[in-house]
């Protein structure tokens, strides 16, 4: 049973909705009612056709690593070094996320595992490698 | 077709400067004025680029300040910011201003201070540079700018087999080029071994894959086609393409193809009525070695997937078939963010005039500049040609 | 002569918004699209204003981000920053882009977040606003922006006898106007007694002499003269003047005459072939009450030295001979820095169409917008007229 | 005897020269060799005629208050409240400065008294009222 059955998805997806969902272990995107394009983060208009008739959709929480890098020189506000940032391909859409746990390579299967909010209360989803 | 002409070009040495931005900009602007043989009274407007003065030094409304310093107070001044594509965007708007007859003679240029002379350390500057990534959907992961281009480059490596050695060859080439350019931040050659031995910043990028934090300024005097012949050494701007792409990068169709660069190049080549084959040399935005690989392919100067190989084989070296970044590029010449775009125009101007000095290429008639901003979501491509 | 036409206008309520900038801008842009009856596919470029996102929220390269949000990814986007004149400068360049035929339909607008929702307190924001003064020759004195305009206003008081009571009348008038405007940050009237009883920020300015810190966005769809008739309710832009002045302010010939405003107004009136007498109403940059006094004189709407008296006598009230800031102005409508310039254009558009609602002026055919940046060293003056 | 007799004035006046002079109790400006305009702070070009043939000049250290304000809401980095900032008319040129000591009004005579450098090592000249 997916979370989609339990909670009401917002009609117009805002950053605040998206961030609240990340904190609840859910990734929200938008599907265009004109061209079926799916966007991985909230937008006012479809990236494919510019349409504004968008439906909020729950994105899968598992996917594969599309690309990745390990950061050894972090920005101010991030204490640790050697963390891995990835773009995860979720099928219809992609999201950027932090990896927790073992290092992953392009093509590896990963699952949503939680979030970090070290950056001034802005949450970022975290993924971990599947066994 | 000539859209506008550059009749004067100037830049500071890129490197470390303990000098306020108006004074740095003044050095470049006065060099451009003198090169063109104009005074401030003949210059009608300033198209000015500065990317991050607010963040680094608490300086905004810098346009009228630098205008005052170079004797242009009173004239219309506009400041542009598009991350690392800041002054290319100023240049584009300057070209359009003279092309449309709005103005006859304008100054376009930019300035930036990024070195620890501002009082900011690497962590602070790394956060400031990261401001060009998405505040809500990218920065919270701890993303940095080396990491942005690492993500693009890693995918390119995955799809095309590009190697770290090939990336190192880009660094070695550009350091070699920079060693011939007295304006370059780095004047020293390096080796593939040295490059591969450096500390990792964001894999696959090691220290030598990354451009330095630089201070500097650049400026060009841009005039209409009609006026150009009344100057000593005009160089024609025959095409300027400007395109954007979706932000954040995960939402781009195929991030590592840098579609904005392809779109901007198509526009610029169409305007100039040239093909990539007719380009003799290029200055591309090699903020990281991988970025040069992506750019050389996006501009059609190298086949898709061959950017790394071309660098390793020396095909993009100054003595190769398609010299890329003969100035040293951002990698060795340096990257004072808001000055980089017009510094590429300065380089094209000097190469096409045959006055580039020790790093002059031989027999070049058509050059291309490629300046990107953010995760390549802004790209401006300019084609310049010697005046017939 | 018509230089361009505004065919769509939109803005958010100005006030406190806990919303990322792209979403705020989207609200204004979509309102402008809908008003014009265009979709993003018909819009060819974005001329975008944001003054301080880098400093307030570590956000740069915001142009392509907001473009993505409103469906314009791919198109050329340029961000302008000229302190408080940020989006008027974007608007000027948008007008020139359609006037020259470069583009047919463009979007111009701006966004800013200045309230404590960004996490910054008054001291921090006061320093950020001060970034528009000179880093080397002004900021080290502890200068603030209220103080910049206090210095200009004090000299005006000294030369012309302008009084604190007259300044209070400006605040009272604009709060009265704002109480009729549902988009205004402040919806409450005030009194001269209340204004004169507030705490001093920088003398002669008390709290009620100062505009608030606001969040908000505004946007307008700008098209060429040729295309305008194919839209429902075009309003013509007949003049846009843009001038600068010497920075720092101590080096200006006569700081309180705000020469850039006079120069910009002369240009704008000449282009529009109107005189100040033919202007029916104006939106002027009343960041502080004294700034409205200086602006009303610089634009020739009131005789030199009479700005304070005119306000006190009600001559610049909505029922007076020369209504100034019928929207509430920056004082009551609010001042989200990068959104202010195009918000003035939104107001002129609605007034000239007769669709301003409760704060509609009667019988207005020619309006002027005055948007300044820094210590008034940048000023853009725009003249708009109903389409015949 | 003025300081001008003692020290060499820089040929091209930079901010660093100006700041060093402020720390030494001296105000430096520039006089244009083409039009005689005097600028109160370093510039690359004359504000009057755009000329670049400028001579560094020592400005008077006494003048009258051209305009003034007292700041009760300071920026971050400035602790105290209620300080007075003025533009001083030095005759040929004007400079912005901080007042130390008694409050001054427009037209009052003031003299250079030193400098403050609370702002990240950037000096600002201070003036005090004459008796
Ligand atoms: Zn769609
Ligand atoms: Zn002069």
UniProtKB/TrEMBL annotation, chains A, D:
Domain ChsH2 C-terminal OB-fold: residue ranges: 57-112
Residue ranges occupied by any ChsH2 rubredoxin-like zinc ribbon domain in the UniProt entry: 20-54
Matches recorded under Pfam families: OB_ChsH2_C, zf-ChsH2
Gene3D superfamilies attached to this UniProt entry: 6.10.30.10
Region (Disordered) residue spans: 110-131
PANTHER family registered for this protein in UniProt: BLR3430 PROTEIN
UniProt protein name: DUF35 domain-containing protein
Organism: Haloglomus irregulare
